[in-house]
Amino acid sequence: MVRARLKPGDVIDGFLIEEIAHNGGMARIWTVSRPDIDFPILMKVPVLGEGDDPAAIVGFEMEQMILPRLFGPHVPRFVANGDFSTLPYIVMERLPGASLYPLLERLPLPPEEVVALGAKIAAALDSLHRQHVVHLDLKPSNVMFRDSGEAVLIDYGLARHIHLPDLMDEQFRLPYGTAPYMAPEQVLGTRSDFRSDLFALGVLLYFFATGERPFGDPQRLKGLKRRLWRDPLPPRARNAAIPPALQEIILRCLEVNPAWRYPSAAQLALDLQDLSSVKLTARAEKMKRDPLSMVLRRRFNPVPIETVRPQTAEAQLANAPIVAVAIDLAASTPDLAEAMHRTVARILENTPDARIACINVLKINRIAIDTSLDEEGRNKHVLRLVELRSWSTGLPAPGGGITFHVLEAVSPADAILEYARENYVDHIVMGARAESTMRSMLGSVSGEVAAHAPCTVTVVRNRQRPD
Amino acid sequence: MLLAILSDIHANREAFEAVLAMAEAAGAERFVLLGDIVGYGADPQWCADRAMALADAGAIVLRGNHDDAVGNPSVSMNPVATMALEWTRRQLGPQARAFLAALPLEAQDGECLFVHADASAPHDWNYVLDAEDAARHLSASHARVGFCGHVHRQALYCTAPGGKVTHFRPVAATPVPLLPQRRWLAVMGAVGQPRDGNPAAAFGLYDTHSAELSFQRAVYDVEGAARKILAAGLPAVLAERLAEGR
Question: Cβ separation of B180 and A83 shorter than 8 Å?
Fold first, then answer.
């Protein structure tokens, strides 16, 4: 292998080397440019010496393999890979500003800032997971932001693409990751569970909200394994300003058993976007660590770790869709309401970790009018919420919880579509408006939703009875 | 160059045609047939003719154990395979028999090695069923990338210098970069008799320039192929298994 020593002014495969941006143990990062590329770019060159950690090389190979396959605003744009036999490198988009790392200087952050950061990172994880990739090294220094606000996840050296061979797996005996952020199953060697990233995000949120790492920074495997049985001090015991809903979210992310965490990054993002919709459990009120007797019991009788194999990782994710049920309370007949109910119940049987959002559109005549704020409008809104709750009685309890929303809008179809786009909805269920002059005059809402939805749409319609 | 790599056609004309069409549509520039052109299926003569035509046009065509057994009366196989073999012998003309008997057991092209069973002993017809079997192949060959068949299930094995051999179950149509610092063995699955529960014909496309391999599946007229097997009087199990891919 040719070990070229790069210096400013060199040209490699058309890339002009400008200046060194970062000199790390595993890689050097140069700012570079090429006339045909009209966005800022950088070149990452691994530091490969005799006796170096072989994981550094494998990590670089993994990044070369995974980064070209990723798209969207939440990853750096890939430009080029350098040949390993001449000069290995990766050229990618250079993001503006710094990572979250410098923020460590001013922790703890106010809870609302932590929640806003968390929502953006969860949205980025959702995008990554939908592209079949588990990051496995989420930490402040690997999170950056675009000027437009989206979180960008960088460094895919420890990542796993579920559809590609895992070069890290079986190659090394020790688990690889960053000690404070590693999920328990990752400590035990699992590299294919999307929920490992949710644990790491939980650690990050805990750290940012309290100024302390929940499991410290252990340097040995024995210390890493402590998190399998020792629970952290609840965040609210460290910082009373943390609302119970945020503690609920953080402690759910930090569950030892992946099956007890959020089933998907999208469901976590939804909760972070709206703390008022978080279903509070005993986690929210906890103010002390578990008693020693319980901890000892766990030590010798460990918490189950229901993790997934690479072949089933995506099925686990698919089991946790976000389902929006659009209910037209006025136009619904009892038959149609019953059929909708049955459809939703069946979805819950098949995908038990689903989250259900029951939505209803309160039609207003014009935009930006304050009728919704007057007494009558408020009453209507509250009444609709009660009606939605009443509609949902008797449904099996969804693993992801159930929420109720009244949207005020001029166009019901637009309101449903916008809700679906902004809330990571995987599946819309709605009833068809009965055959009527209204439908022929106004067109069908379900037809419009089905035509433009970013996801699956089920339109429920009763078969006509023979006369 | 884009290579289309096919193995274990097993006289299944319908599957063979579907795979050739799909490979051509994908822009395949060269064909590689890893052996077992005949045996089990109802169209040995047609498949042998097609393989001959491909060989004339520059394809690499190898001999598999079923092709070998056609001209080798001493070979013993399980009862179903033996019945199919005897029937196949009667169907094949002298030219096809000579063609099959003269095929090589392995071939090398650039950094790729092609073999029906495994490189450690091509004529012993060993199966590559796990990482240990793959290690036997990889230690016997210097080629960076190996392709074999014989097993009827797709798999990909990889090793780094001094490292263990790891197994990967491919995901259809996702290109896998066969990274240059590593050595690889790809088991291509079967065109004419898949046994992984998916009835679609299995094959692979390998881009020698980008070193990307994608495992592919082609749906074909399973019912037509099965009907012909029954009509030929071959064991019914050979027809039934096609629909289930087992």
Answer: yes
